[in-house]
Amino acid sequence: MDATEAQTEQPVVQERPEVVRVREAMPDTLLKVKEFRGDTFICVRREDIVEVIKLLKEDPDLDYGYFSECLGADYSQWEHERDLTERFEVIYNLMSLKHNSRIFVKIGVDDGQRVPTLKHVFLGAEYPEREIADMFGVIFEGNELPEGQRWLLPDDWVGYPLRKEYPLGGEDVFFDHGDRGPAVEDVQMPHAGESFEGKTGSEDVSGR
């Protein structure tokens, strides 16, 4: 091998065993694998999420038995590169205490589509799924509330506050002595920074 060949040769990147195992067991469900800042993201088909999570949990060589969280994201106004084409993403954060390793599994969801619940695989998934449903309107099949009931919000709340089209603003706050506090839009409290006047409330903090 001459010097030119040595300079152009690329190092071989070894796939994580989690990725290899999912690809071997369910080759059609694996859509994309991404490495970002030391973390691995596995993108899979929505309808296969239960089988993928069970595989990661029950395989003795992987042992992802700790459910850290799941969360939602609305990419309807995101103009940059995407991992998945659907409007929403649900991201599952799993950890193997045996190997002290972490893996993220992502699925895409559009309006009107349902996600199979994981609460029968991890009991800890029940409440995060309901939070995503309440804030984004993503329904987890098998983990629905009765018709007309909300999880975190009042039952008469209209809309889903973490969707990108939801208007900003606030409501008046009631204090314990019957006082009425200001709504979010009534008071502005800029902090010091390049885009502000150098004040936080009435205190000068930037020296400008």
- Put simply, the count of helices is 4
* Oligomeric organization of the protein chains: single chain
Beta-strand proportion: 25-35%
User: Can you count the beta strands?
Assistant: 11
pLDDT < 50 stretches: 189-208
Overall geometry comes to: globular
Using only CA atoms, what is the Rg?
A: 23 Å
Helix share, percent: 10-25%
The biggest beta sheet is recorded as: 5 strands, mixed
**CA-to-CA gap between the ends?**
61 Å
Q: Could you give the order of the helices and strands?
A: HHEEHEEEEHEEEEE
- What number is the mean pLDDT? 83
Sequence of strands across the biggest β-sheet: 1-2-5-4-3
Structural class: alpha+beta
Plain-language structure description:
With 208 residues, this protein is an alpha+beta fold. Helix content is 17%, strand content 26%. It contains 4 helices and 11 strands. The strands form 4 sheets. A 5-stranded mixed sheet has the order 1-2-5-4-3. It has a two-stranded parallel sheet with strand order 6-7. A hairpin with a 2-residue loop joins strand 1 and strand 2 (39-44). The termini are far apart. The model is unreliable at 189-208 (pLDDT under 50).
